[in-house]
Amino acid sequence: MSEAVIEEGTGELTGGVKRGGSAEARAVTRFGGMGDVVLKVLAWGTLLFLFLPIFVIIAFSFNDPAGKFNLKWQSFTFDNWADPFKYEQLNTAFLNSLEIALVSTLLSVVIGSFLAIALVRQRFLGRETLDTFLVLPLTVAEVVIGASLLTLFLDLGWNRGFWTIVLAHVAFQLSFVALTIRARVRGHDWTTEDAALDLGAGPVRTFTRVTLPLIFPGIVAAALLAFALSLDDFIITFFNAGSTLTYPLFVNAAVKNGLPPQVNVLATAILLGSLAVIGAGSLWARRRGDT
């Protein structure tokens, strides 16, 4: 009889555990489902927050404003795209920005590439200190960098203009370029260089035919980042521009005096060009991976 009681009690206890476990499982499943919904809403909300200004810029490139300011939607038109270079001052500023971005990116990529290789491959006095100072431009406020470079150029007696902007951009681009390329160089298999040298290739040929192709994706990524940073920069450029007008400086002045829709047209053109470069790079990397 006692065994029957024990068995009966065990059965009740076991059943209670099973019932409790299934209830907990349902609660966890229900919470997990709600959590997935919340995460999806947050993800889509974040994407909307990031891309909504871009959509507005694109949409207002087709706007026909009633006055000087392209800030309120009036009517749809293609006239802005038919004449994107209507304003000479805007054209000059846009071309200046492109030239500065191209020159500064070329200089920073060349210097940054060798700097990244030296930091990874070589052991020299002050290497750790240089590695630490390389991160400083990423953490220091741009207004500090701009004011410091302005003081330097004035002390040297240099007239502010195109080349002071280029040097200022190279100063902050170098950190981004060197750190980006260094991440690629660290994953490089250096035994391939040794194999090339053992097979009779010289140092220059080994670098151009072995090392450079392997780190080239990192160089391209660094170049795109440097170009975008230069084209977009306002604060450091503002301190060191002098009488030279760039696209961000023009937009800043246009907000006060008159904002034509051609600003949106050129901004959209830059966006489309960036997407084309990214798409071409992805296609090239995919084909390279297939081969």
Notes on the structure:
The protein is mainly alpha-helical and 291 residues long. It folds into two domains: 1-60; 87-259, MetI-like (MetI-like fold). Helices cover 80% and strands 0% of the residues. Helix 3 crosses helix 9 (203-232), helix 3 (88-121) runs antiparallel to helix 11 and helix 8 (191-198) packs antiparallel against helix 9 (203-232). It is globular. It starts with a helix and ends with a helix. The relative contact order is 0.12.
Entry keywords:
2 domains; disordered N terminus; MetI-like fold; mainly alpha; 291 residues
Number of strands: 0
Shape: globular
CATH topology of the largest domain: MetI-like fold
Which percent bin holds the helix content? over 70%
Q: Architecture of the largest domain in CATH?
A: Orthogonal Bundle
Average pLDDT metric: 84
Specify the CATH homologous superfamily of the largest domain. Answer: MetI-like
Short description:
The chain is mostly helical and 291 residues long.
What is the secondary structure topology, with strand pairs?
Blueprint (H helix, E strand, L loop, with lengths): L1 H59 L18 H4 L5 H34 L5 H7 L2 H4 L2 H15 L5 H25 L4 H8 L4 H30 L2 H6 L6 H11 L4 H29 L1
